[in-house]
Amino acid sequence: MEHELRELIQKCDLAIQQEDFDTLMNYYTDDAILVVRPGMIARGKEEIKKAFIAIAKYFNNSLVPAQGEMVILETGDTALVISQAFLKADIKDSKYSMERRSTYVFKKDSHNAWLCAIDNSYGTDLLNK
């Protein structure tokens, strides 16, 4: 049986692919952060939604994210997810890697549902300045 976070991340990937950013925002905490690119962070659902719209445009509205191997470290109401992330898009050259080792932090809300608090598709690559 797959961990519920893997299934949730797959739902997020599908929402990104379909550019259904309203649904996508349902999976984020109100104070979540998204690493848009190294050195640029979107804070809160409004900024994150705007960032995803810009990201979709950058990738010619053809972005298809997918996850590979995944490690989920869970304690109490918090989980760290380390995942291979693969991006496909109709774009010739991107200055950003299309294969990443992403890190995500999820928290459970008052209804015991997982929500993304930190979305960092660049993972430890943020250390490479």
TrEMBL record:
<dbReference type="Pfam" id="PF14534">
    <property type="entry name" value="DUF4440"/>
</dbReference>
<protein>
    <recommendedName>
        <fullName>DUF4440 domain-containing protein</fullName>
    </recommendedName>
</protein>
<dbReference type="InterPro" id="IPR027843">
    <property type="entry name" value="DUF4440"/>
</dbReference>
<feature type="domain" description="DUF4440">
    <location>
        <begin position="6"/>
        <end position="115"/>
    </location>
</feature>
<dbReference type="InterPro" id="IPR032710">
    <property type="entry name" value="NTF2-like_dom_sf"/>
</dbReference>
